[in-house]
Amino acid sequence: MRFQAAFEVLPAIDITGYDQIKVDRPNTTLDDAEFEAELAHIRESHAIMEPVEEDRPLVDGDFAQIRFTELVHTGEGSAEGEAAKPIEGDDATVEIGAPSTVEAFTAALRGAKVGQQMQFEVSYPQDFTEKRLAGKTVAYDVEVRGICKKILPELDDAFAKQMGEYETIDVLKDKLREHMANDKRRRLESEAKDKLIGSFVERFQFPVPESLLQQQIDARLDHGLRALAAQGMTTEQMRNLDFTRLRAAQRDSALNELRGSLILDRIAAIENIEVGDEEMETQLQLLAYQAREPLEVLRKRLTGDGGLTRIREQLRREKTMDRLFDRLAA
Could you tell me which CATH number the domain at 48-151 has? Predict the structure, then answer.
């Protein structure tokens, strides 16, 4: 019996000069302004709204509780005529003087008291975040029904204990600063590493086996579909997606990812970078903890579907990139 067989093989990858490519090392130092901004954000997120009982007008920083009717002027030549159907709101809240509040709205409400009624118009800019109102002039009929003010919690030991197992506010601040510093360092270093691998991919061009490329596209689509499912998309809705178009849209990104992985594999081979059994065991313990699955059950499952090999390959690439970043980032 005679037969012929065709196989796809990995190309010869010439990465001469890879160790001469440089990337800027980011400044990962956490400054005081970043820390204070995050602390203020946490404090804001735990603020409470308190009704204002005294008889006084609205001032900047207050929250006006209003009932309103809005009439959007659509402009001349519109199929809807000069104005659309009025829209009513019974319980809206507007922060007076806030950057997110249109100035004309603030100007109209500032100084008003509970029970006061007013009419005014607001012209929204073309780039207004709510597309329905962008570039439109809106006539408002407003009644002020209440005034509230925001009460921020004191940054004291009681607040620290409310936030978790922190005995004092100083402990909370220290832990927050440490977390923010680590997060900033990881984020900026990850961005710099992406730029480094991007430079490798741009410089070292080579063909890749179509079967590997299709596997990479499959992986990207699987990740995207899982994200859509987590957001509430049903299986039936997914079946109606145009997968031919989706696969075509993923091709270039998948190709760059695949080339980056093959380049890192080649560098790892050149520099004799390997992943030891202890490193694998640590990673498996972490995965078992995250999946809430017994370690040996996880190990058996990954052994059966080739997962252990994929994990070792990914760890090897990460280890290679860390070593390259330490050496090539300046």
Answer: 3.10.50.40
